[in-house]
Each structure stands twice: as C-alpha cells, then as structure tokens.
What does this fold into?
Amino acid sequence: MNVVLQGAFWLALYLALVLGPLAVLILAPSPGGAGFWWDFAMGMGFAGLVMMGIQFLLTARFRRATAPCGIDLVYYVHRYLAYALVGVVLAHAVIPMVINPALRSAFVPFTVSWPMTAGSASLLCLLALVVSSAGRKRLRIPYEAWRVAHLALGVAAVALAFVHMISVGHYTATPVVRALWLGIGLSLLGIVLWLRVIRPWRLLRTPYRVTEVRPELGSSWTVVLEPVGHDGFAFEPGQFAWVTIGRSPFAMQEHPFSIASAPAPGGRLEFTIKELGDFTQTVGRIPVGERAYVDGPYGAFSIDRQPDAAGYVFIGGGIGIAPMTSMLRALAGRGDRRPHLLFAAHSRWDRVPLRDEVRALAEQLDLKRIHVLEEPPEDWSGERGRIDADILERHLPDDRGNFHYFVCGPVPMIRAVERLLVDAGVPRSRIHTELFDLA
Ligand SMILES: Cc1cc2nc3c(=O)[nH]c(=O)nc-3n(C[C@H](O)[C@H](O)[C@H](O)COP(=O)(O)OP(=O)(O)OC[C@H]3O[C@@H](n4cnc5c(N)ncnc54)[C@H](O)[C@@H]3O)c2cc1C
It folds into this structure.
C-alpha cells in the first residue's frame, strides 16, 4: 500500500472510532429535544472521550500494529492529535455557554455540582498535558518527571471525563449506551494495565546482562547486552529498543536507543550511547554484570524495509551514526556487493563515534565514506562545514533516484538534509529518517 493510501486508511479508521459511538447514540433512544447546537456540543464531548482513549492506544507500543509505519511516527501522530482533542473538548465546554449564558459559571470548578467540577477538572488536566508537553524543554521539566506526570494527568483526564459523563447522565441513560461506555472504559483500563503492569512483567522474564562497556570517540560508550536464559529477539538492522539498566522495568526509567549491532544468533545487542543528560552521563560507570531489560524492536528505519534499492546512502550526524553502523554491519555480514555511500557529519575528527568500526566495514563493502567536519584538522583534505547542496552534488551517484536514503541526527540537520535531497532530485518516498527526539 502506498503512503497516501495508508494515510487515508488510518484517517478513516480514526474517524470511524471517534464517530462510531456517536452513531450508536443517534441510533439508540435519545432524550431528544435540546436543539442542534446543544446536541452537537454533547457529541463533541463523546468524541473527545473516545479521542482520549485513542491517545492511550497510540502510545501503548503494540509492536505488530505499529510495525508497518514505525512507532516514532505513531508518537508524532499522538502529539498532533492532542491539539485536535483539546479543540474538540473546548467546543464541548464552550458551545453550551454560548447558547445559554447562565451556564458560564458552570466552568469554575468546585463552585458547581461535582459532575460539572469533574468535567472542568478533566479539561484542565488536558490543557496541563498539552502545555507541559509542547513546552517541556522551554519550561525545563526533566524528562522522567514529565513522563510520570504525563501518565498521571492522562489517566486523571480520562477518569474525570468518565465521571462527568456518567454522572451528568443525560445522554447515557439507556442500557445500550451505558454498555458502550462501560466497554470503552474497560478497554482503556486494559491498555493502562498492559502498558504499566503486563509489559514490564513480561520484560522481567526476559532479562539481559551487561557484558561490556567500552569507550568510543565523541563522549560515547558502547554497551553490550546478552540475554540471560532466553534467545533475545529478532530485529531489522537500524531499529531501536527501550532499554532499562540497573532498574526494574516497572520503574519507568527506560530510554530509547538504536541497536548499533547487526542481528546475530544468540540475541547479543550493542548500543552506542552519547553522554547527554542524567542517564546517559552515567553509562560509562555501568558495571559489567548489571541487569538490563530491553523492550523492542521498534521503528521502521531499516534497509530491510527497502530491499530493492540499487544501493543505500546513509547520512548520519553526531550519534546518528549508531543505526547506520547496524545497517552497515548487516550488509557486510550478508556479503552485499551493491555500492553504498556514508555521509558522516561531526564537529571534529576525534569526535566521530564508531570511526574505526566504519573504516573496517568500508574494507568489506563497496562503501564510499564522506566525513564532513565543522572543525577539521589543518591537514584535512576532505569535506568541511555542514552537509550542503555542493557536497551532496559532488558525491551522490548519477542514478540517485534508484538508491534509498537513511538520515539520522539532530532534528535541524535531518530537516535540512531532507530538503537538500529533494532539491537534488531524490524522490521523497526514498528518504527515510529517524528522529532521536520523541518527546
Ligand atoms: C528512536 C530513538 C533512538 C535513539 N537512539 C540513540 C542512540 O543510538 N544513541 C544515543 O546516544 N541516543 C539515542 N537516542 C536519544 C536518547 O534516547 C536520549 O539521548 C536519552 O534518552 C537521553 O536521556 P538522559 O537522561 O541522558 O538525558 P536527559 O537530560 O534526561 O534528556 C535529554 C533529552 O533526551 C530526551 N529523553 C530523555 N529521556 C528520554 C526517554 N526515556 N525517552 C525518550 N527521550 C528521552 C528528551 O528529549 C530530553 O530532553 C535515541 C532516541 C530515540 C527517540
């Protein structure tokens, strides 16, 4: 299925899920008679509640369901649908006040009946969710604290909305509609249970052990994990996993990292991790033998999704070289003879993680390496500055439309390179990106 068809399919499914309960409401016996705008506003409330449920569903990491498009894309959809959700719930709250000015005071929590207080508290939770997520970096909210608050606010928003809806009860009085909402409520509870209880519990049964922690150039470390008492999992080179080291999988202290090794029998995994913040700065001090848990694989950033390419062009900035190394290792292991290119953008030569590894892989593959350095050494004869149109033009093959392109690095770099590639004549459908910034 092409991208447009896939998009249309998911949009239709989303609308069916959001509007489905409305259809049941219309078909079921209704209390009737409050006028179109009133009914419309109540409909928005029901649609908003279903949208809240879908927000949970989208982040529940159902591997099989998210496999075709990659879970990172699903997280982006979750982010943008949140704005639509707030709009729908605001419409539900504001339209009745416009129709009937006497209701304006109904929005002030604790001054009105508790079902109305529950409704406005739910809306406040939603607004807090959106503001704290969109402005997390600017408000300097630490990621871990944000994540716990995000879950708590999300659960509170849904629970309060349910209390509001059932206790106001005007449109939910019939047994059919009550059964529908009970089903939706139980499904939501099931998703939270799956995410926070069943999945961590399953991870507990498939532990890993840290067998090596080695320093890399560019303030990075490679951590090697081996499965204990199981065979690990199959993955496609370039995919990523959520890793918990030295903590319980129930602790919500997991971090996403690309798998830098190629798939191997025995389930051994390597992650190359750049020191950046609270957790990653402690990676160099992780003792060998430490317990770890790996939830994966996720993502669609893999050569195995594009097997029919004339060759691959990898464009990595900073630690974005990690998934590229996984793909190069896999190609070398398979004895691939197609021509490939690697553009590696870094500040300095002595800050290129996995530099020697990539050089060794180039000897086994038909791989042209183009290192682009912002601060090159004096005797540097390679490319300098940042990847630009001239650098791409000098190195991209003439039959560039037959290659597939994998771009990973800082978000501004990815966006700039995407534009440059399109300008250079590469079809958009052949450009694949991995953002190291889900939240
Ligand atoms: C799909 C994907 C693949 C990645 N692969 C790699 C890799 O191979 N090597 C590598 O060095 N880095 C990778 N990262 C980035 C890595 O996840 C973050 O650098 C790391 O989680 C930072 O955690 P911290 O506690 O050290 O930093 P903090 O200072 O706590 O956070 C720095 C920033 O990292 C992000 N972040 C922090 N914790 C998490 C988390 N649990 N989940 C998601 N984002 C978080 C937040 O945006 C935060 O603002 C990847 C990220 C993603 C989304």
